[in-house]
Design brief:
about 350 residues, alpha/beta, Quinone Oxidoreductase, Chain A, domain 1, Rossmann fold, seven-stranded mixed beta sheet, six-stranded parallel beta sheet, 18 strands, about 30% helix, globular
Length: about 350
């Protein structure tokens, strides 16, 4: 099969490799679509260093089951499916408490986090466990289905962790792919005023198209003043989906009494300060969210199936697997949103 194999940083090679075979409890998926995540790009370019070579990246796939291994009981060849990248044992304490993304025996296909990293979906075929497979609704495209994992992360952060309520005034800082998904989830959940903050005019225009009621230039220098001119009493929820530490600091400055805030986008180990007494009297509740769970995946699928969120709208570029090097170039450019690899 054709696969994009990362041999070393900045050394992504398209080559023919033996197709994998499913073992007990596993399925072989013929990949149709796979989202190109920023973490994949960071691994390829050496920005993210926790990589063991060789690696087939790609952890946002959808496809069709090509074969099933022994003891697989719920799926069969020909089923159209969505793949969760994070595998779990189901029997450790974390799994039994519903926190499968904390699993003591976790693995990932094409992603990062656990020590057990298996070949991902920048390939024609991928093997994963039956527990990681979800049925693709007939009315959801393979491209949209491939974005279930990031959409599930947005649902998990905005709804499950931060408990957004109907009518809440929401601020999203950073409207790249994940920020737009957070915005779309908030819109579907009944946000009142929905403010998007980004330094990119391209990103702000995307946010406006996806349902933001207001947009603010992050470089305008008076962000808090602008937010409070729109929401005089301050936001009910602020979601940081940008990544840089400056966005987290901006978020802290927007808090008023009772604001919920979610440190969602930053993954680097950088520090920010809080005034202890002010934090105490504000009663602002901080949440954060990473990874996904079966609950979040199934909830994201319901959003798509019912027509409440269409993640395909955030796709700006599509490339065939054989053209993945062009996709890598586009990933490094500012004028793009979600990049999709089609096999």
């Amino acid at each position: 099969m054709l696969a994009a194999v990362l041999k070393d940083f900045n050394d992504l090679v398209l080559e023919e490799v033996p197709p994998p075979a499913p073992g007990p409890g596993e399925v072989l998926v013929r990949i149709k679509s796979c989202g190109f995540c920023a973490t994949d790009y960071k691994a390829i370019k050496g920005i993210r260093r926790n990589v063991t070579f060789p690696l087939i990246p790609g952890h946002e796939p959808s496809g069709v089951i090509a074969a099933v291994g022994p003891s697989v009981t719920h799926f069969k060849e020909g089923d159209e499916v969505i793949c969760q990248p994070s595998g779990y044992c189901g029997v450790c304490e974390a799994c039994r408490l519903g926190n499968t993304h904390y699993c003591e025996h976790a693995y990932t296909t094409g992603g990062d986090g656990p020590e057990d990293v298996r070949p991902g979906a920048f390939a024609e075929y991928m093997v994963t466990g039956e527990e990681c497979i979800f049925r693709k609704p007939a009315n959801v495209s393979f491209d949209a289905a491939a974005l279930t994992e990031p959409l599930s992360g947005a649902w998990k952060g905005v709804i499950l962790k931060s408990e957004m309520h109907v009518g809440d005034d929401v601020v999203i800082i950073g409207t790249g792919g994940i920020g737009l998904l957070c915005l779309m989830v908030a819109k579907a959940a009944g946000a009142g005023r929905l403010i998007a903050i980004d330094a990119s005019e391209y990103a702000r225009n995307n946010a406006r198209t996806m349902g933001a009621t207001h947009v603010i230039d992050a470089l305008s220098g008076n962000v808090k003043e602008q937010v409070y001119s729109i929401i005089p009493n301050g936001p009910d929820l602020v979601v940081e989906a940008a990544g840089p530490i400056a966005a987290v600091k901006e978020m802290v400055g927007l808090l008023r009494r009772g604001t919920k805030w979610n440190v969602f986008g930053i993954t680097t180990h950088e520090k920010f300060e809080l005034d202890g007494g002010l934090t105490h009297f504000l009663e602002a509740r901080m949440d954060s969210s990473f990874g996904t769970t079966p609950l979040a995946m199934q909830s994201a699928i319901r959003l798509m199936e019912r027509g409440l969120v269409n993640p395909e709208k955030i796709i700006s570029h599509r490339f065939a697997l054989k053209d993945i090097h062009q996709a890598v170039e586009v990933m490094g450019q500012p004028g793009r949103n979600k990049v999709m690899i089609n096999c």
